[in-house]
Every structure is written in structure tokens, then in C-alpha cells.
Amino acid sequence: xxxxxxxxxxxxxxxxxxxxxxxxxxxxxxxxxxxxxxxxxxxxxxxxxxxxxxxxxxxxxxxxxx
Length: 66
Fold this sequence. Notes:
Blueprint: E1 3-5, E2 12-14, E3 18-19, H1 29-44, E4 50-51, H2 60-65
Parallel strand pairs: 3-4
Antiparallel strand pairs: 1-2
């Protein structure tokens, strides 16, 4: 994974981030589990940039990411 420094903060973020716009939209727990699995896989591969917002899936996106 390639990383870039975030401004002058010294923090390093992955060049590839994960968007979570549709994370939190599911009809059963198996679908939710797949969403969590995808997030965990990205993190395992080195991704540390996860884009989320309280408006994504009416706040459920942040719940799944947490």
C-alpha cells in the first residue's frame, strides 16, 4: 500500500481509501457481515482512510464502520 503524508501533521494515510456511502444499507445480517468483512479486508491490506459521514445510510454507515 502506498501512503502519503497528510499536510504537515505527520500522519500518513493510504493512497487508496474506502468509501462507505452504501455501507449500512442491508436487508439481513449476512449482508451486514459481508460489509464488515470488506472493511476488515481493506484494513488488513493497509487501508487506513475510510470515508464516512452521518448522512450515509442515515447514520448506519458509521455504526457498521465502528
